[in-house]
Please model this.
Amino acid sequence: MKNKETAIRSIVNTAVEVFANTFSNRHISQVSNPDGVINSKRNNCFMSALGEDFMIYSALSRSFDSSLGSMLETIGRNIARLSYRVLDDIDSILLPAQDQYIRNLISSYDRRDEYPKVSHYDSFTAIIPKVTDSYRQVHKTDNFFCDDSSGTYYIIELKAGGDLDNKKAKSEKSEILREYFMLRNKIAMSSDKASNVKIFFATAYNRYGEGHEWKQERVLQYFSREELLIGRDYWNFICKSDKGFEIITDQYNKSAWKIREAISNIKAAYHV
Model:
């Protein structure tokens, strides 16, 4: 575990350093650009009147959030390589009966006739025809792992920002169920040793605070509790260790000075 911890810490530290350099270089390079992220805010008299510090942080906030989310997802995938086989897409078939079943299931969640359960889909079977060319699809999946030691595939919908837009919960569950059935079909048509498929909705942190119940009601209308990897649970899964979250957050806190320095450099470049 010690070697693995060292590797995890190295991944986090490197990702933070790359993030800090990329973030600062991007915004410093726009100092003379009137259409740059920060200068465009300066042209808003209603924003600039609130002070330079507020204006800078307001301008950087949206850019920072999206960039941070990408960094956390990259960290997750790179750490997962230490314990899992990381895959890029699902090239398989989706049968009409399965597609219709997904539509019916989601409709039942819409009406609240059913509360989400794994048993709703893992017990559904469909006969695969001999000719399948017309049913073939390719789905790009960012968080698709295989644990060869247990013969289990994992498809994870990660929202690094900590939650899922309520309006998107329905479409996300429909999409991940399509990927689930496509992967099961692929396994059924091959000699793949892995035979089990699990799907999860995950967040990089608990928006309600670690140790508190995660209770985004709209998401829970479509995802069951056993399909959730929230904050600590996600990082422990990725690290395949019950100490994963502590290792990652400890190293991030140690490396975060690089991001703080990057922000200071940006402010200095804009004479704030």
